[in-house]
Design a protein that fits this description.
The structure holds three protein chains of three kinds. Chain A is an alpha/beta fold. In chain A, 40% of the residues lie in helices and 24% in strands. Chain B is an alpha/beta fold. Classes of the chains: A alpha/beta, B alpha/beta, C mainly alpha. Chains B and C meet through helix 2, helix 7, helix 8 and helix 9 of B and helix 1, helix 4, helix 9 and helix 10 of C.
Amino acid sequence: MANLILDDICVRFGGLQALTDVAFTVNEGEVVGLIGPNGAGKTTVFNVITGVYKASSGKVSYDGTTITGLRPYQVLSMGVARTFQNIRLFQNMTALENCMVAQHSRSRTGVVGAVLRSPGQRREEAKIIEESRRALEFMGLGKVMDEVASNLPYGHQRRLEIARALASEPKTILLDEPAAGLNPAESMELMRDIGRITELGINVLMVEHDMKVVMGICNRIVVLDHGVMIAEGLPEDIQRNPDVIEAYLGQ
Amino acid sequence: MKRLLVLAVALAALGLFLAGCGEEKKADQVLKLGTMSPLTGPYAADGNDIRQGAEIAAEVFMEAGGIPGYSNIEVIPQDTACDPKQAVAAANKLINEKVTGVVGAYCSSSTIPASETLAEENIIMLTPASTNPKVTERGLPYMFRTCGRDDHQAPAAVKFMKDVEGVKTIFIVDDKTTYSQGLAEGVAMAAKEAGIEVLEHDHVNQGDKDYSAVLTKVKAANPDLFYISLQNSATGALMVIQARRMGVTAILMGQDAVYHPKLIEIAKGDAEGMFCTFGAIDKDAPSYKEFLTKYKAKSGNEPGAYSAYSFDSATAYLMAVKAAGTTDPVKVRDELLKLDFTGASKHIKYQENGDSGSNYTVYKIQDGTFTPYWNSLTGEKY
Amino acid sequence: MDFEFFIQQLINGITLGGVYALIALGYTMVYGIIQLINFAHGEFFAAGGYMGVILISYLASQGLHPYACLAIALVLAMGYCALLAMAVEQLAYKPLRNASRLAALLSALGMSIFLQNGLMLTQGVYDKAYPTEITSGGFHWGLISVSYMQIFIVALTASLLVGLNVLVFKTRIGRAMRATAQDKVMSALVGINSNRIIAVTFAIGAGLAAAAGIMVGLYYGSVSYTMGFVPGIKAFAAAVLGGIGNITGAMIGGLIIGMVEIFAAGYISGEYKDVFAFIILIGVLYFKPTGIMGENVDDTRV
């Protein structure tokens, strides 16, 4: 029962009110779209969930546990992984290593065990490689896993971001504009991939500007404008919502 | 950054305040004797011996009746770190503390600049350890020296090499301090005059631990004798250990700065057979035995190389003040020149220039101790 | 003869360079991960040397075999310095993680002075002698002599360097270190506790420095509380020469500085050996400001 619940989240930066009383949920098996004009606070929502920013008030809970105030690595070990709008891969590592890093919180071996190459460490290392390979293959990157990340073509780097998130064995994935910079064919493929991710039992919260992608795969949509939720509902309702149209056209 | 600045100002203010408090407490006839020596840094070992020697001299002097008119003798130690700049700062600090006499410093390169600062205030300075000739050759009236001089030490060492050991070739290494290099150059010059060939005169840096490169050269040059002029017994020990490990078979010879029990403690068996020049201290003399008993009882440790010289320097000053009945530098100087006594280190009779004569003896390290081996004054073996 | 002289100096250079490399690694790893020049690093080296002599003397007095003493003392001293480094990091650097780099740098300088004086107050101003009996002896061929101690130093250095490479490039801790060095925020978002990894980095660097401290103590016969300063500066120069932040670079830099010093002392004069070491440093930085392994090949950064 992977539920992400945001409860009246407010975020202030000095005098700037970035988010005001944002409250919504992402339920099991759902794909939720988070949309809004530029500067609406979408990425801020992601940062609050993952512990990068602290909420000024309100609370985030996950699977019935409060996760506000947890550090990013703790949020991840709860099962919430994330990708970035501007790609933030570990550029000097191979695709495989990028995924292996994400297994950090799912493994234990310390310094001593690692240097001595204990049987436990070897077993664990084998498991890490196995999981990482599976994530890469899932995203269609099996053939390039030994390439250094910075040498991969853009589309592959986007996919690698998602593969890295999957490699951390999440129950929820936050995707920040996964279709940005992709051509229509790649976007179509991405939509199919997101569908397959949900089939793994992972629910998705996604920020996206490409309305075709959003309308195509989201079960529900949350609309933010200037840090305030102005609408929430099914895609077809949102498309007809006058406030949403106003927010986008007024821009 | 702003907070740092505020903190700095606050600290400075606090410092001033504390200094102000210090001024308040007027000395009620306490005789203030300063010491200057490296209490930190690589020469801290000898430096602390000097501080301790003076402190114990003051205690012993007080127990023996003290000085009429003075309720106590206070010893104020200052750290020079064997650094000329810090030595001058230490001298200024002692001037502010209103000391009337100073025992110190250790490194000649500290003693020389510090003595000039002290001379401006007519403060008497007695060095227990600075052997560079310049210390007493600048015409400073209040500069005294209880130890010997390098221009006596160098010829004594060379005479020993030639007459006793029949050395024909030597290799010299120093570590570039006023003292160590000055002495090494003295040895090189005296050796040439004596017809000993100086194969090479090389230098190392202070703070070095690895002498393998220079020792490989020594080994290749294969001299009869390897003369080690380092500022410190611990580095001397490193040189000796590495030389023997490298297979240098030459006779090893050091000087008064490497003459220290620590040399043997660290170098152990590798130091066996090494020679060192140092002032002749008669360890069987009653004056030395008395010093040794008191020193051990008060400090809980064995005296170092310069403990006795420092003890004697402080004692000489206190005796002169007692005789003069005042700390007036002119009168104390007169009394110092009149002194003629047997101290812990040697018989002390200061000359007009402040020197007290050299009595260099060559010691040989045998069975883990420095054993007197040859006396430069008599030219005889013990 | 000349050839033997050269070979001997080469052996001397490798030994000294190995020691510098071990110390340089700590500087470079810490710099790589938090961009701090840890001036207190030389003191970990000194503390390791002291811990070594205390432990070896104690264990020897318990009647243990000399080599067993050495092995146990090595492990314990490395562990001790690792803990010490973590404490220093926690106390002096972590609170300043988000402060200006100058503040952290000053804190590092202060820590260096504090540790050095702490060592002086607790261990005394006199040099402490190492029980060198266990390491005496060696091989001699003509002019060339190689002591067992040199072989031991080179062998231990090499195995520590190999161990470190395995750790950094082949294990989860190493991956986490590289990830944290590249992008602290992102590494946190993939589940890495960066504070832990930073602490571990300090610990590893200090452990290596402690090993170097013990080897220096054994090789040169004594340790002193000021011993961290000069090798610290040299090792820092080695780290910069190799490209600060780069592990392979630190190893290469250490060897180069050691070699240059020995050869300058051997063929020119001991007086100028530091001058030549720094001329090489300046020369390299003039043509390659990021150091030998800096810039393009920074995938080995930690």
